C-alpha cells in the first residue's frame, strides 16, 4: 500500500489551523526554532524488519492480521511509516529472517519509497532448518571450533548481503552465555568470542562498522558472554577502530544509569548507536518512551552534549534504530508512537540551556541544574516536531491519518488475517 502526497495534504489542511496556533505560541518562545526544526527534519530512525508483525512470548502470540508476508511487503510497510512521519527512511534487516533474493529489485523497491538499508543483523541465537551444527551451547563462544567456524561464516554471509544493499554496518548480538554456575569457563568463552569476532572484523569492508550489542540476561540466565557495556567495550577496543558498542535500552540490569553509560561511550568515541525501546522489568521491548520518558530525555541530553563535544553529525554519525516487539498493539501504530517519542526527546535535548546547566554544575547549584533539565522536559514540543514533519512532507497526525484511512483494515483485506510475519 502506498500513500499519495495528495491524501496527506488533504489531511494536513484539516488540521493546519489548530497546529499553527500551537506552533506559533511555542515558536515565539524559542529563538533558535529554525535550526531545531532543520535538525529534526534531518534526523532519521531505522525500523527493524523483525518488528512489522505481531510479537509474542513463550506464553502466546495473538496475530493482528494484515502482517507482511515477504521482505517486499515489509519494505512497503516501512515506506508507509516514512510517508507519514518522514523520519523512518531506513530499514534494518535481520538475516535469515529477511534474506533479500533479488538485490536489484529490493533496492529499486526501497529507493522508490525513499528508503535505504541500515545496519544488518546476524542471527546465531537460533538453529535454522538446514543447519549442520547447533548453537544450543553458544555460537562464537562455543567450545567446539567447528561451531564457531559455522557462526563466523554466517556473519560474513550477512556482511555480503549488506554490501549488496548499501548497508554500512553489521550488528552482532550473541545469546551466548550460561545458565548455571560451572557450566562455562568465562575466560575461554571470552577468548573464543574475541578470536571469532576478529575473523568477522577482518571481513568488514573499509568503510563498514561492527556494532557489538550487549545484554545482561535472556536467553541465558547465569552469564551472558557480552553481558554489559564494559564487556562490549573490551571487545570493541581489542578489535579495532571499526568496532563499537551498541546500546539496547532493554538490555540492562534494573535501575542501571544508561545515560551515564552513553556519556562515557561517546567520550571514548565507541558508541555505535541504539536499539530504542522501553521496559519496566526485563527486555520487554515496549514502545519507546512509554514507561520511562524522563530517562529517554536524559539519554538524549547526554547524546547532544557528547555529540557536540565531538563535532559529530547528529543524524549521520550514530546508528539510530528501534528494536521493539508488539504483543498487544498494531505494529505500525506502535512504531509511529516510538518514532514520535524519539523525536520529542531529541527536540527537548536540543533546547537544553547548556550554558546555564554548565554554570549550575560548576557552582554545585544542584537545584538550578535540575531546573534547567526539568524546565525543558516539561515544555510541550509536540507542535515543533509536527512542524518539522509537515515541512518534510509528512502528516500532522500520523496515527490519526492511519486510523482515518483504515490502513490496517486495508492491509487485512489485501494480505489476510492469519499470516505471521517472520521475526520475533
Ligand atoms: C536481543 C535483540 C537483538 C536482536 C533481537 C531481535 O534481545 O535485542 O538486537 O537481534 O533482539
Ligand atoms: Mn536489540
Look at the helices and sheets and give the structural class: alpha/beta
Averaged pLDDT, please? 97
Q: Can you list the ligands bound to this structure?
A: 6-deoxy-beta-L-fructofuranose, manganese (II) ion
Q: State the share of residues found in helices, binned by percent.
A: 40-55%
Kindly state the number of beta strands. Answer: 13
The coarse silhouette is: globular
First and last CA, distance: 23 Å
The sequence of SSEs as H and E is: HHEEEHEHEEHEEHEEHEHEHEHHHHHH
Biggest sheet strand line-up: 6-7-9-11-12-13
Work out the radius of gyration: 22 Å
List the total number of helices: 15
Largest sheet: 6 strands, parallel
Question: What can you see in these coordinates?
Answer:
By secondary structure, the protein is an alpha/beta fold. It is 48% helix and 10% strand. The chain is built from 15 helices and 13 strands. The strands form four sheets. A six-stranded parallel sheet has the order 6-7-9-11-12-13. It has a three-stranded parallel sheet with strand order 1-4-5, covered by helices on one side. Strands 2-3 form a two-stranded antiparallel ribbon. A hairpin with a 2-residue loop joins strand 2 and strand 3 (60-61). It binds 6-deoxy-beta-L-fructofuranose (LRH) and manganese (II) ion. Residues 50, 121, 173, 213, 215, 248, 275, 283, 323, 424 line the site of 6-deoxy-beta-L-fructofuranose.
